[in-house]
Specification:
The protein is mainly α. It is about 80% helix and about 0% strand. Helix 4 (about 45-75) runs antiparallel to helix 5 (about 75-100). The chain starts with a helix and ends in a 10-residue tail after the last helix.
């Protein structure tokens, strides 16, 4: 990975992104923390944040696509909004799990009640820099 980082940074970033996807979506939860640590040893913190945000964009797009399918009957705009909101909620929960650890049910319920895209964006920004759940303004 170190050689790849110096010889082809773009390919290195793609490899890190792919590894992150594999860890988050294909490995058991118990292995994820250890594997994330291994990945982080081969990159800089700023790069990891960029990769996570790239993952967020992919999840948002996936949510938009899902919302578009459901939204044809309800109207394209409403379906797109619902898909984006659901994708942001899912990514927020995944990011919380990555940054903080196990997410309490009370927090899951709070996130599931958020209906505003802008509020979810604010929460995503706070979670990206939070060290603990207390660092996040839930109201």
């Amino acid at each position: 990975m170190e050689t790849l980082a110096s010889e082809n940074p773009e390919l290195h970033n793609h490899a890190i992104l792919y590894l992150n996807y594999l860890v988050f979506f294909r490995r058991p939860k118990g292995e994820q923390a250890y594997l994330r640590q291994l990945i982080q040893t081969h990159t800089h913190d700023k790069e990891v944040e960029n990769i996570i945000m790239t993952g967020a964009e992919a999840l948002i797009q996936q949510g938009i696509d899902k919302g578009l399918q459901q939204g044809k009957a309800e109207g394209l705009q409403q379906g797109e909004k619902r898909g984006e909101i659901q994708a942001k909620r899912e990514f927020l929960l995944k990011l919380l799990d990555i940054r903080i650890g196990d997410v309490p049910d009370t927090i899951i319920r709070k996130i599931s009640r958020v209906r505003s895209r802008s509020r979810l964006d604010i929460l995503l920004e706070q979670v990206a820099t939070a060290q603990t759940l207390d660092d996040i303004e839930w109201q």
